[in-house]
Amino acid sequence: MGARNSIVLFFFMLFALSSASPRHKNKYKPCKHLVLYFHETVYNGTNVADATSAIVAAPQGANLTILAPQNYFGNIVIFNDPITLDNNIHSKPVGRAQGFYLYDTKDTITAWFGFSFILNSTDYQGSINFIGPNPVFEKTRDISVVEGSGDFFMHRGVATLRTDAFEGKYFFKLRVDIKFYECW
Amino acid sequence: MGARNSIVLFFFMLFALSSASPRHKNKYKPCKHLVLYFHETVYNGTNVADATSAIVAAPQGANLTILAPQNYFGNIVIFNDPITLDNNIHSKPVGRAQGFYLYDTKDTITAWFGFSFILNSTDYQGSINFIGPNPVFEKTRDISVVEGSGDFFMHRGVATLRTDAFEGKYFFKLRVDIKFYECW
Amino acid sequence: MGARNSIVLFFFMLFALSSASPRHKNKYKPCKHLVLYFHETVYNGTNVADATSAIVAAPQGANLTILAPQNYFGNIVIFNDPITLDNNIHSKPVGRAQGFYLYDTKDTITAWFGFSFILNSTDYQGSINFIGPNPVFEKTRDISVVEGSGDFFMHRGVATLRTDAFEGKYFFKLRVDIKFYECW
To answer: Which is nearest to C149 in space by CA: B98, B104, B25?
Structure first.
């Protein structure tokens, strides 16, 4: 396959991956839209000062400082990560992402999330609650925005996760596109 | 009590158990309806090749290969189970059920579920998110369908769980009737 | 600062704390409103007869009978607590609160809840599902009522938590104001 075809294929794949729900792509317009980043450092036994999360459960034979051997299957992680408006971890935080995820596949890496954004900035005050699956190797993953408090009272929507960066197994950064389709 | 009365009583009990929400029985019609099955084999220390789930947390004194002594109270189980269109575990899977449940009663068996169906078939593409209580000895149990992605974008509904089969403590099969009452 | 100013400041603070979402304070009226209490006693290694909950996961170095050292960060607790109509633990229970919470902050106490109320009284039959963050030192905290079954079929709303009492680290009582804004 020539270089030109490779490039065409590459862009085709990017396009194909760029929407998890093509059938609904342009049908609905969000009533509110936020783009936020959160930054996580998992405790690995030595990074206590920097860690924003910790493994608190593991399958038989595994421990709480090393992610479990089969693609982390069986680990539960509790986190409390800074949220920023851009992808720079040194930007002023606008809130905290708090909750948990668990790794639920042995032959690839997928996680299931239950957490909240607690926002406290001039733009937004309140919490947003999320649940849903995160197959981390897909370019985008949609989870559910099931409700919130304060500025997000009774709201519903979809949050699209993208991995903005990962450095080793114990640090990653997620971009979260929150689109509300039901606002009150 | 005579045999005839016993039979009448039996059918009366079946009827009484057959609806968890009689007051709403015929009032609303679902806008979408799916019936699916999922099949779970819990890791018990010896069945590593077949296991689709694992105990990852247990109360003080219990371990991760034997369900906890008081009706499993205090266990958290992470699962990744095949979903099929009928109750045959050998049927071609149409997706995976991924997430967790925890056992939360000492004097009977009840669980609390948080999980997703990830469907990938010619009929349906997308995920469906569930949370709610599962009192396993009731004939039917209703949990919440809080939203989804792809074909289930912003949908809401109710999922009725039925135990289709269980074989020992480490294998069970659930029938899931998913009725969406809010479709987008 | 004089006594009079202190009192004014005190009432001002009470007022400021009394609503987590002032912008929405009077805009919407609930279609259904319940006030309930639940009572929790965490297992601490010696109170097995009274305990209604247990620590089932802990961070590295901690155990399952003592709440973790950094404001309980990293603990997961499974609970099954009696629900009453008033704040008296000896009142007749109208149901059970079943599910889990996890502690997710090191420098203060905050929790993330996923649970259900299973109500079984002359007034209400059915379950109500909740998720959301609980920053325990705030006077009120709003979590999401994402749906239910029976009398709460497809309902959505907000639950405001207040700490009615705590006695030591292993007993607390929460008042829950459940306001449904979407009834079916």
So the answer is: B25
**Per-residue pLDDT at C168:** 86
Of C56, C126, C131, the CB nearest to B21: C126
Answer for the pair A76, C57: CB distance below 8 angstroms, yes or no: yes
Provide the phi-psi class of C12: left if phi over 0, else alpha when psi is between -120 and 50, else beta: alpha
CB C56 within 8 A of CB C78: yes
* Closest-CA residue to A19 (of B118, B126, B94): B126
DSSP line for A160-178: EEEEEEEETTTEEEEEEEE
Predicted TM-score (pTM) of the model is 0.87
Report residue A141 CA to chain centroid gap. 8
Distance from CA of B7 to the nearest CA of A (A): 45
Query: Which residues in chain B have their CB less than 8 angstroms from residue C131's CB?
Result: 131
Interface contact flag, B133 C55, Cβ < 8 Å: no
pLDDT in tens, B34-91: 999 999 999 999 999 999 999 999 999 999 999 999 999 999 999 999 999 999 999 9
Distance to chain A for C140, nearest Cα, Å = 11
Q: Please identify among residues 33-72 of chain B the ones whose CB lies closer than 8 Å to any CB of chain C.
A: 57-60
Interface of A with B in 66-125 (CB under 8 A): 73-76, 102-106, 110, 112, 114
A112/B126 touch (CB, cutoff 8 Å), yes or no: no
Handedness of CA C161, B131, A55, A130 (dihedral sign): negative
Mean pLDDT for B93-109 is 98
Cα distance from B169 to chain C (closest Cα, Å)? Answer: 20
Return the residue of C nearest to B111 by Cα.
C99
CB contacts of C56 in chain B (<8 Å) are: 57-59, 74-76, 102
Helix, coil or strand: residue C8: helix
User: What is d(CA A83, CA A39) in angstroms, rounded to the nearest whole number?
Assistant: 7
* C56/A38 Cα distance (integer angstroms): 28
Burial class of A38 by CB neighbour count within 10 A (0 to 12, 13 to 18, 19+): buried
Q: How far is CA C34 from CA A33, A113, B116, C55, C125, in A?
A: 32, 29, 30, 29, 13
CA of residue A21 relative to chain centroid, distance: 17
**Residues ≥6 apart with Cβ < 8 Å to B93:** B82, B83, B84
